[in-house]
UniProtKB/TrEMBL annotation:
Organism per entry: Brevibacterium daeguense
Gene3D superfamilies: 3.40.50.360
NCBIfam families according to UniProt: nrdI (TIGR00333)
Matches recorded under InterPro entries: Flavoprotein-like_sf (IPR029039), RNR_Ib_NrdI_bac (IPR020852), RNR_NrdI (IPR004465)
Functional description taken from the UniProt entry: Probably involved in ribonucleotide reductase function.
Name of the protein in question: Protein NrdI
């Protein structure tokens, strides 16, 4: 299952995505850069930035990417990256995207994740691949 993710300069999400067995594509860092066009089912990983301080918590490049209907149509689910120090706003962006795009939040992890997080996400992505294959037959 393809993974599409945004990761800022701190690169935590990038480091997590690199450890997965599944292929991944990174959204551009700069908002002004062209976004990606994805033509196969994918899972999005998004960190949360600044929830609860009167600012949008979804990174701008994630919004730009999901404003393309063709991309939204291929979105299977969302994984949240965040920090539990943010309390009730932990991984808020994943919930915002899930609600707007009517897909489930599949998992949440903190910062660059643990080896257990990587294993669980890999297994979940394996299951999603199998499900896609079954529905294709
Ligand atoms: C200014 C700032 C605001 C943040 N706000 C939140 C938040 O509201 N909720 C949350 O779960 N994490 C929040 N985080 C934590 C990041 O989502 C977390 O560090 C994430 O792993 C960053 O991923 P990245 O390095 O790939 O961009 C915030 C981090 C920063 C620097």
């Amino acid at each position: 299952m393809l993974v599409v993710y945004y990761s800022s300069g701190s690169q935590y999400t990038h480091r997590f995505a690199e450890k997965l067995k599944h292929p991944s594509r990174r959204l551009p860092l700069l908002t002004k850069s062209d976004t990606l066009l994805i033509e196969e089912p994918f899972v999005l990983i998004t960190p949360t930035y600044g929830a609860g301080v009167n600012r949008g918590s979804v990174p701008k490049q994630v919004i730009k990417f999901l404003n393309v209907k063709a991309n939204r149509d291929k979105l299977v689910g969302v994984i949240g990256a965040g920090n539990t120090n943010f309390g009730e706003n932990y991984c808020r962006a994943a919930y915002t995207v899930a609600q707007k795009c009517k897909v489930p939040v599949l998992y949440r992890f903190e910062l660059l994740g643990t080896p257990e997080d990587v294993e669980k996400v890999d297994k979940g992505l394996d299951l999603l691949c199998q499900r896609q294959l079954n529905t294709a037959i």
